[in-house]
């Protein structure tokens, strides 16, 4: 299968891509010319100057190519790993620089080339002579130092998949495809009909998982918070802005100026700029543990707040019940369940009003003014009433005789 057919098959099969301007990159590749390309015409794996081996990384990044197609705008991860190994075996080489101008490419294959970089016996740095986007940034950030030309574009950190749907086109030409399948995942993601919600979710989950690995990889390599990287949402930056954000270390005009690798057969770390595989993995675990700890602390805080809220509610309910019982005792009344429920639902102000209205009003005789006794207050009415009653009784007795 030729390279063009393989790339088309992978894209149609929803291969995870980390690439900026995929359509433009594919359009710029002369696949017909590549099909006639002779292995004997391959360019050198690298050039050496003052002990520094410069390996070009160009165009679309793919897992592997059958030949060296870098001059045509295609670089294979497996091929690149071979070049790094060759440079490690070359006694004239003391350090390695990856000269990158690429918009990215496949996610598949990145783990292999980054492992090769980590295991290199000779120090490896990156110089961005053009752009370094997406998978190319994943690759470049794996080295001990990143320098870019001032005109370079940096970033586009993220991944995606492409899905092509042909149902509208088929309908336009009077064709309709029916699928009879044994389960919803059989013939899933086909192009003949719209994606189902489950299919969309499955594709998005794959993208999110791969993107999380990308974010944590950059976070570990560049000492930038993974949440900050995710918040950029795949944005691209100028070299100046990228340096400000911590995505690159320096700006220079050429590989020679950018290269500051120590001329030795070891891979030293300078000023905390590089990180071996074990340290990178440890950093990723540390970031993941920190995130998990934050999530757990938030959950614990919510649980504590709920306990406090329930305790307060129980205390208020107990206090209100005691007030209801006292009101019943003071008024000599027995409240119905509905009345008790209504009392409990009231706020303090409402209950105070209800409590006031429920208590009977005590009727008191008016107090006499100071210095005025009862006889004076009744103005002799009680004495007069007594004399009248006595006369009535006497008349009754006289009549009875």
TrEMBL record:
<dbReference type="GO" id="GO:0008233">
    <property type="term" value="F:peptidase activity"/>
</dbReference>
<dbReference type="InterPro" id="IPR029045">
    <property type="entry name" value="ClpP/crotonase-like_dom_sf"/>
</dbReference>
<comment type="similarity">
    <text>Belongs to the peptidase S49 family.</text>
</comment>
<feature type="region of interest" description="Disordered">
    <location>
        <begin position="258"/>
        <end position="278"/>
    </location>
</feature>
<dbReference type="InterPro" id="IPR033855">
    <property type="entry name" value="Protein_C"/>
</dbReference>
<feature type="domain" description="Peptidase S49">
    <location>
        <begin position="119"/>
        <end position="260"/>
    </location>
</feature>
<dbReference type="GO" id="GO:0006508">
    <property type="term" value="P:proteolysis"/>
</dbReference>
<dbReference type="InterPro" id="IPR002142">
    <property type="entry name" value="Peptidase_S49"/>
</dbReference>
<protein>
    <submittedName>
        <fullName>Head-tail preconnector protein GP5</fullName>
    </submittedName>
</protein>
<dbReference type="Pfam" id="PF01343">
    <property type="entry name" value="Peptidase_S49"/>
</dbReference>
């Amino acid at each position: 299968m030729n390279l063009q057919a393989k790339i088309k098959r992978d894209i149609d099969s929803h291969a995870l891509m980390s690439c900026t301007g995929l359509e433009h990159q594919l359009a710029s590749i002369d696949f017909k010319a590549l099909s006639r390309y002779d292995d004997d015409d391959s360019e050198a794996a690298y050039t050496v100057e003052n002990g520094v081996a410069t390996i070009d990384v160009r165009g679309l990044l793919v897992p592997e190519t059958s030949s060296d197609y870098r001059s045509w705008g295609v670089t294979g991860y497996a091929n690149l790993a071979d070049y790094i190994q060759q440079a490690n075996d070359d006694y004239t080489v003391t350090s390695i620089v990856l000269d990158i101008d690429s918009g990215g490419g496949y996610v598949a294959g990145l783990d292999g080339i980054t492992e090769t970089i980590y295991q290199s016996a000779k120090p490896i740095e990156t110089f961005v002579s053009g752009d370094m986007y997406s998978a190319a940034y994943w690759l470049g950030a794996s080295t001990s130092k990143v320098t870019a030309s001032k005109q370079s574009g940096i970033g586009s950190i993220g991944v995606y998949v492409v899905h092509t749907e042909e149902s509208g086109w088929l309908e336009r030409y009077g064709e309709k495809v029916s699928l009879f399948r044994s389960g919803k995942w059989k013939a899933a993601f086909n192009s003949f009909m719209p994606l189902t919600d489950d299919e969309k979710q499955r594709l998005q989950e794959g993208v999110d998982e791969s993107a999380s690995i990308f974010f944590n990889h950059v976070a570990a390599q560049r000492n930038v918070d993974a949440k900050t990287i995710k918040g950029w949402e795949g944005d691209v930056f100028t070299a100046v802005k990228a340096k400000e954000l911590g995505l690159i270390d320096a700006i220079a005009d050429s590989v020679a100026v950018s290269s500051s690798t120590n001329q030795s057969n070891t891979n030293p770390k300078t000023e905390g700029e590089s990180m071996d595989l074990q340290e990178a993995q440890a950093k990723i675990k540390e970031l993941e543990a920190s995130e998990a700890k934050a999530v757990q602390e938030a959950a614990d805080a919510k649980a504590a707040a709920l306990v406090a809220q329930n305790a307060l509610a129980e205390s208020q309910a107990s206090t209100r019940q005691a007030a209801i019982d006292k009101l019943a005792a003071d008024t000599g009344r027995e409240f119905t369940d509905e009345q008790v429920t209504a009392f409990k639902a009231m706020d303090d102000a409402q209950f105070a009003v209800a409590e006031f209205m429920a208590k009977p009003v005590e009727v008191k005789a008016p107090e006499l003014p100071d210095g005025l006794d009862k006889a004076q207050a009744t103005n002799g009415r009680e004495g007069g009433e007594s004399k009248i009653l006595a006369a009535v009784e006497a008349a009754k007795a006289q009549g009875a005789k």
